[in-house]
């Protein structure tokens, strides 16, 4: 058997990130940015009003109260002697006309509208005698509360200027990042593409979920599990299929897939049985098998499928559902990260937790136990991890797997896990 870290290193050796592609900004969520996003527009692109109100010159409001003039974040001073100014006109958001605010004049202005030349302050409509809402343009406005100079004005370029680097290459694009890219002028972005994946569940005993079972049949839950795990990891699942225990059928299935995918993930057929189809097909594909020092998930395989000019990476996982679940988080996720250029950003999140019960762990193997994690309400308290089944870690316990929010990680040299001891938990 080889250690878990050694097997991960073997998996990742030689994997290079997929070539960048250009996609619509709306389709780039979760992708890794391949080029810096450099601002093509300033934000804001023009000086505009932060409020519905009246744009004017602060100098026309007289001397401001020194006690309130420089208070950070203060919009208005205390009520003062009302000041009345004539209203020159309306400025709506999106109005491209050029307006000028002359001395002693005010313009009614809407949120987001361009501030007229000469104006440097906006008085909120609530601080005037003009009612809020849809009302006719008044001839004059009386200001009841004097704002500080420059209040309620968003200045051009105060968030960013043209040429500023907004998002750096290598960052994973979040919803907010996509909004930022659009705000500085980008409709398309160069990214590392999502990994195109094909899923193959193997075994004559499998039938599609929902079908009646004969004596030796079981539902195919692995294909459902792998598809969902891959999609949650931002992979593009191109095809999901089943192969029986015929080596030629299995090899032909892989050959067809590799024209359309970057990675194939299989479940089952990698142990030491007489009908293990993945091992039986190893002569026709470039595939290596290992016994990894872990429980569950000891038998693993990886390699590359080639058919003509096409090829795809292959991760061959064991067939028991909990083994598939564990193997995905421990091995497949790092492969996806390497292909998309995510690197350390996609590493598993591990927390320290205390166990609510004790159990045995096999000597010389790293044990991964599905656990339900209860998070503390108070900061500083330790999360509590409870095994999802009273009988502990069994590779076929799929019916209780839905309760797992973490995988307890028990080191190879630990054989007894004591109740209320501190352990590492991978958050899943």
Automatic annotation (TrEMBL):
InterPro entries: MoaB/Mog-like_dom_sf (IPR036425), MoaB/Mog_dom (IPR001453), MoeA-like (IPR038987), MoeA_C_domain_IV (IPR005111), MoeA_C_domain_IV_sf (IPR036688), MoeA_linker/N (IPR005110), MoeA_linker/N_sf (IPR036135). The keyword Nuclease does not apply. Pathway: Cofactor biosynthesis; molybdopterin biosynthesis. It catalyses: adenylyl-molybdopterin + molybdate = Mo-molybdopterin + AMP + H(+). GO terms for biological process: Mo-molybdopterin cofactor biosynthetic process. Keywords: Magnesium, Metal-binding, Molybdenum, Molybdenum cofactor biosynthesis, Transferase. Residues 198-338 form the MoaB/Mog domain. It holds the Pfam family MoCF_biosynth. The keyword Metal-binding applies. Transmembrane segments: none annotated. One of its GO terms (molecular function) is molybdopterin molybdotransferase activity. It comes from the Bacteria. One of its GO terms (cellular component) is cytosol. Its cofactor is Mg(2+). Belongs to the MoeA family. Catalyzes the insertion of molybdate into adenylated molybdopterin with the concomitant release of AMP. This is Molybdopterin molybdenumtransferase. It comes from Nanchangia anserum.
């Amino acid at each position: 058997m080889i250690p878990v870290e050694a097997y991960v290193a073997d998996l990742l050796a030689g994997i290079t990130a997929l070539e960048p592609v250009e996609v619509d900004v709306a389709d780039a969520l979760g992708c890794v940015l391949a080029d810096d996003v450099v601002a093509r527009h300033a934000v804001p692109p023009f000086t505009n009003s932060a409020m519905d109100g009246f744009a004017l010159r602060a100098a026309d409001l007289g001397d401001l109260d020194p006690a309130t003039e420089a208070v950070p974040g203060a919009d208005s001073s205390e009520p003062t002697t009302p000041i009345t100014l004539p209203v020159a006109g309306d400025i709506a958001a999106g109005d491209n006309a050029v307006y000028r605010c002359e001395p002693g004049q005010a313009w009614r202005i809407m949120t987001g509208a361009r501030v007229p030349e000469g104006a440097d302050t906006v008085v909120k409509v609530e601080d005037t005698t003009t009612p809020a809402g849809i009302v006719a343009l008044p001839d004059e406005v009386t200001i009841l509360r004097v704002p500080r100079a420059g209040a309620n004005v968003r200045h051009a370029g105060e968030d960013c200027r043209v040429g500023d680097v907004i998002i750096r290459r290598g960052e994973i694009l979040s919803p907010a990042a996509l909004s930022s890219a659009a705000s500085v002028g980008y409709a398309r972005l160069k990214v590392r593409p999502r990994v195109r994946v094909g899923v193959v569940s193997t075994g004559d005993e499998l039938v599609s979920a929902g079908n009646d079972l004969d004596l030796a049949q079981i539902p195919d839950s692995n294909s459902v599990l792998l598809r969902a795990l891959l999609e949650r990891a931002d992979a593009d699942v191109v095809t999901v299929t089943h192969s029986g225990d015929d080596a030629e059928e299995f090899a032909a299935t892989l050959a067809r897939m590799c024209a359309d995918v970057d990675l194939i993930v299989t479940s089952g057929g990698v142990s030491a049985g007489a009908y293990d189809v993945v091992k039986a097909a190893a002569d026709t594909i470039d595939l290596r098998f290992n016994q990894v020092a872990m429980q569950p998930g000891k038998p693993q395989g990886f390699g590359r499928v080639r058919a003509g000019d096409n090829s795809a990476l292959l991760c061959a996982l064991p067939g028991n559902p909990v083994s598939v679940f564990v193997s995905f988080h421990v091995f497949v996720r790092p492969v996806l990260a390497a292909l998309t250029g995510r690197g350390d950003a996609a590493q598993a999140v591990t927390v320290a937790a205390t166990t609510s019960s004790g159990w045995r762990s096999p000597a010389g193997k790293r044990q991964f136990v599905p656990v339900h994690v209860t998070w503390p309400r108070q900061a500083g308290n330790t999360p509590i991890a409870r095994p999802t089944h009273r009988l502990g870690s069994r590779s076929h316990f799929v019916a209780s797997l839905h309760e797992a929010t973490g995988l307890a990680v028990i080191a190879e040299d630990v054989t007894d896990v004591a109740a209320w001891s501190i352990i590492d938990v991978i958050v899943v």
